């Protein structure tokens, strides 16, 4: 059984991004936009900024109170979009409920959209054209590739259908010639579908959802979930039970999370190149 070590692979991706940045005429500038005071979001954004700064990215953080209006935030995102010194924009989700996240994401110029969340980038991914894709699914692929896990012709099952993870994950796996099934909360007999998977990717947001009976012996299991429990950080996969049947598995923490941040750096470099026309 192989542990898919996200921290180790992330180090390599970050080092490659830092080397790329050193060759650019001007360092990329990433605007992380954080609204409100959700403690988990604060930790994620702090980690993202720290890694970016260490790689030579200019940190253009913007912080707004939970009571910011849609119009104020829209004006701020438009200003970042117009600012040539800002080469990437990340709007941390979720937003407080009075804000329309879709409308705000739509204001991000597609070539500054380091999260790959705009309609343009989702469409580019669906059509197989070059663009920016979401960091978490990109990180999952990078982690699988680093461990030589074959995707062409493999049965891949994705649990979860969010715009940030499940849907783009399915698109990326299709692009890599996997046979892709997408499951969700209304799937009948989730365990039976998951058991077909050679590669099982779980992004459901439900702690411990995947137990050993849902995993084919020898399968690769990637856990995108992250939950703060009294026993510490846990994923969507019952790690201790599933590791006994899986051929390879990601830990939480130390699996997909560090890869997400590493791919943010890679996307920030790609976005800077796109906006500079290189
Ligand atoms: N617009 C947007 N883009 C995102 O990419 C995005 C988002 N919104 N909203 C929330 C999720 C969550 N996310 C994580 C990033 C890093 C870790 C990470 O570094 N995890 C560490 C543990 C860190 C800790 O929580 O202590 C690990 O798994 O080893 C986790 C989760 C990005 N997200």
From TrEMBL:
<feature type="domain" description="Tetrahydrofolate dehydrogenase/cyclohydrolase catalytic">
    <location>
        <begin position="4"/>
        <end position="115"/>
    </location>
</feature>
<dbReference type="Pfam" id="PF02882">
    <property type="entry name" value="THF_DHG_CYH_C"/>
</dbReference>
<dbReference type="InterPro" id="IPR020631">
    <property type="entry name" value="THF_DH/CycHdrlase_NAD-bd_dom"/>
</dbReference>
<dbReference type="InterPro" id="IPR020630">
    <property type="entry name" value="THF_DH/CycHdrlase_cat_dom"/>
</dbReference>
<dbReference type="InterPro" id="IPR036291">
    <property type="entry name" value="NAD(P)-bd_dom_sf"/>
</dbReference>
<dbReference type="GO" id="GO:0006164">
    <property type="term" value="P:purine nucleotide biosynthetic process"/>
</dbReference>
<dbReference type="GO" id="GO:0004488">
    <property type="term" value="F:methylenetetrahydrofolate dehydrogenase (NADP+) activity"/>
</dbReference>
<keyword id="KW-0368">Histidine biosynthesis</keyword>
<dbReference type="GO" id="GO:0035999">
    <property type="term" value="P:tetrahydrofolate interconversion"/>
</dbReference>
<comment type="similarity">
    <text>Belongs to the tetrahydrofolate dehydrogenase/cyclohydrolase family.</text>
</comment>
<keyword id="KW-0378">Hydrolase</keyword>
<keyword id="KW-0028">Amino-acid biosynthesis</keyword>
<dbReference type="GO" id="GO:0000105">
    <property type="term" value="P:L-histidine biosynthetic process"/>
</dbReference>
<dbReference type="InterPro" id="IPR000672">
    <property type="entry name" value="THF_DH/CycHdrlase"/>
</dbReference>
<dbReference type="GO" id="GO:0009086">
    <property type="term" value="P:methionine biosynthetic process"/>
</dbReference>
<feature type="binding site">
    <location>
        <position position="226"/>
    </location>
    <ligand>
        <name>NADP(+)</name>
    </ligand>
</feature>
<keyword id="KW-0486">Methionine biosynthesis</keyword>
<keyword id="KW-0511">Multifunctional enzyme</keyword>
<keyword id="KW-0560">Oxidoreductase</keyword>
<dbReference type="InterPro" id="IPR046346">
    <property type="entry name" value="Aminoacid_DH-like_N_sf"/>
</dbReference>
<comment type="function">
    <text>Catalyzes the oxidation of 5,10-methylenetetrahydrofolate to 5,10-methenyltetrahydrofolate and then the hydrolysis of 5,10-methenyltetrahydrofolate to 10-formyltetrahydrofolate.</text>
</comment>
<feature type="binding site">
    <location>
        <begin position="160"/>
        <end position="162"/>
    </location>
    <ligand>
        <name>NADP(+)</name>
    </ligand>
</feature>
<comment type="pathway">
    <text>One-carbon metabolism; tetrahydrofolate interconversion.</text>
</comment>
<dbReference type="Pfam" id="PF00763">
    <property type="entry name" value="THF_DHG_CYH"/>
</dbReference>
<keyword id="KW-0554">One-carbon metabolism</keyword>
<dbReference type="GO" id="GO:0004477">
    <property type="term" value="F:methenyltetrahydrofolate cyclohydrolase activity"/>
</dbReference>
<comment type="subunit">
    <text>Homodimer.</text>
</comment>
<protein>
    <recommendedName>
        <fullName>Bifunctional protein FolD</fullName>
        <ecNumber>1.5.1.5</ecNumber>
        <ecNumber>3.5.4.9</ecNumber>
    </recommendedName>
</protein>
<keyword id="KW-0521">NADP</keyword>
<keyword id="KW-0658">Purine biosynthesis</keyword>
<dbReference type="GO" id="GO:0005829">
    <property type="term" value="C:cytosol"/>
</dbReference>
<dbReference type="InterPro" id="IPR020867">
    <property type="entry name" value="THF_DH/CycHdrlase_CS"/>
</dbReference>
<feature type="domain" description="Tetrahydrofolate dehydrogenase/cyclohydrolase NAD(P)-binding">
    <location>
        <begin position="134"/>
        <end position="274"/>
    </location>
</feature>
């Amino acid at each position: 059984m192989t542990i898919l070590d996200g921290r180790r692979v992330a180090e390599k991706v970050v080092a490659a991004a830092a080397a790329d940045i050193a060759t650019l005429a001007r360092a990329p500038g990433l605007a992380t936009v954080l609204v409100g005071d959700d403690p988990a979001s604060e930790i994620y954004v702090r980690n993202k900024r720290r890694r970016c700064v260490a790689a030579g990215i200019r940190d253009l953080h913007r912080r707004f109170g939970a009571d910011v209006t849609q119009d104020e935030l829209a004006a701020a995102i438009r200003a970042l979009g117009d600012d040539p010194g800002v080469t990437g924009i990340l709007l941390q989700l979720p937003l407080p409920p009075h804000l329309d996240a879709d409308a705000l994401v739509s204001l991000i110029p597609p070539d500054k959209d380091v999260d790959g969340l705009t309609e343009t980038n989702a469409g580019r991914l669906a059509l197989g054209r070059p663009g920016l894709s979401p960091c978490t699914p990109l990180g999952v692929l990078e982690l699988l590739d680093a461990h030589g896990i074959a995707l062409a012709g493999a049965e891949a099952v994705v649990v979860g259908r969010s715009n940030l993870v499940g849907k783009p994950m399915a698109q990326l796996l299709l692009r890599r010639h996997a046979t892709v099934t997408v499951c969700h909360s209304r799937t009948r007999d989730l365990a039976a579908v998951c058991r077909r998977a050679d590669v099982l990717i779980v992004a459901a947001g439900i702690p411990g959802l995947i137990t050993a009976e849902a995993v084919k012996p020898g399968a690769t299991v990637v856990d995108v979930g992250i939950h703060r429990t009294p026993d510490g950080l846990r994923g969507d996969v019952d790690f201790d039970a599933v590791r006994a049947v899986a051929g390879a598995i990601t830990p939480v923490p130390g699996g997909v999370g560090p890869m997400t941040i590493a791919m943010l750096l890679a996307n920030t470099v790609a976005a800077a190149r796109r906006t500079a026309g290189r």
